[in-house]
Amino acid sequence: MWQKKAVTRSQYANGSAGILLEADATRAGDLLKPYQSAAAVVYLDPPRPTQTTAAYQVKLGSDGYLPGGPEIALPAFNGFPENPEAYSAALEPLLAAGIDILSPSGTLFVHLDHRIHAYVKIQLDKLMGEAGFINEIIWERGTGAPAARHFNRRHDVIYLYRKSAGAYFDITRAPVTRNPRRRHMRRETDADGNTVYMNRSGGKTYAYPADNPAYPTDIWTDVSLLSHKDPQRTGFPSQKPLALLKRIIRTASRPGDLVADLCCGSGTTLLCAALEERRFLGVDMSPHAVSAAAKRLYGFGFYQERAADTGEAIPRATVSRAIGLYSVTLEDFPFPVLPVTLPIGYTPRPLDAVDQWAAGFIQDGVFMALDVSARTKNTPTLRHTLEIPMLPGPIALEITDIGSRRHLYVYEEI
Ligand SMILES: C[S@@+](CC[C@H](N)C(=O)[O-])C[C@H]1O[C@@H](n2cnc3c(N)ncnc32)[C@H](O)[C@@H]1O
């Protein structure tokens, strides 16, 4: 009844917000060709120089979202080499791919940690030209393991480079709250009754109206890493806060521009671009990253390009007709083989294997998703029944299992 299909492209709603690709960005020449010189912003947040494999925390079933509920940690992506020369060599093709899609008036942001940024600065100067270097942004993440034998390491570095002097930049799009204590200012009321911040310097007194906007410098201390309980958290390792990307996207692009992230992880850049009415291009080679990112983007129309699993898993799902629509009910899906052991005492329920699913049609070799359900903090329980209008083409199902494998099926009546 349900036949596996090797359809790789999916479209959600009208697809107008952007595209998400599961690919090694350094080998995705053909996929990235249409975006050559097209992106107003390219943000790259490559893996850190560490031998460890970062783990993706996946909740098991609806109960997984309860405090202390069952969850597993799946290997999501490997760190880059610790040796600086080897790190730079691993990064070089990613930087080249990013620069290739950057528009002549675009801005490149490269996010690095304290161990490696000095080496990459020299690399970027060579690739973008010394004149292209604009800022070294210090992001004080607001955390860091307590240290007794050195100063606590609390910051990342984000390099900002431009291809040309004519690059777009508008600092007024990212106002910040004035912090009177940091700026040695006092809050006072002036003779006209207005609230002002006063600053005395060189024998002179300066007064700034309290409602005058302030703008960020190259030291960002007002954006914190996501806490464990933050509602933004997806479980994907090294997920960045939306507020960080908002500042980048707002200052360096306009609505309608293309914002690209070739190491998109959980899709923070893509979600932020969509929220700010920019188009997005997201690439990641980790299926877990693409799965986590897709879940955050279903509220927008986008395309996804991902390999379809060729294994034997077949869903138990029924199709019924109502006036003008089909109802597709998912009853069961085989539990995938995972590279980790399940928590003791956990017994999977019929739909626990499914992280997200969509119903729609195959049209011109593309799966057109018309109704989607995904497990999130707000919707831990999947909808068992999806409803789709009666359109031409075979009815199809896309299922992403909790191991982040994407399965595609078409319905054949018997
Ligand atoms: C630090 S994480 C990015 C986190 C992301 N900024 C977020 O907010 O979730 C780095 C990502 O780079 C991806 N990556 C590493 N090498 C890649 C490559 N050659 N092509 C595509 N993705 C790559 C990893 O799979 C990982 O998801």
What descriptive keywords fit this protein?
globular; 3-stranded antiparallel β-sheet; binds S-adenosylmethionine; Rossmann fold; 3 domains; Immunoglobulin-like; 15-stranded mixed β-sheet
Can you give a write-up of this model?
By secondary structure, the protein is of the alpha/beta class. The protein has three domains: 18-173 and 218-298, Rossmann fold, CATH 3.40.50; 177-214, no CATH class; 316-411, Immunoglobulin-like, CATH 2.60.40. It has helices at residues 29-32, 84-101, 117-128, 242-252, 268-275, 287-297, and strands at 2-4, 9-12, 18-22, 39-44, 53-59, 71-78, 102-112, 133-140, 155-162, 186-189, 195-201, 204-209, 219-220, 258-261, 279-284, 302-305, 316-322, 325-332, 354-363, 366-374, 385-389, 395-401, 406-411. Helix 4 (242-252) packs across helix 5. The longest helix has 18 residues, at 84-101. The model has no long low-confidence stretch (mean pLDDT 94). S-adenosylmethionine binds at residues 24-26, 45-47, 77, 94, 236, 238-240, 262-263, 265-266, 268, 283-286, 289.
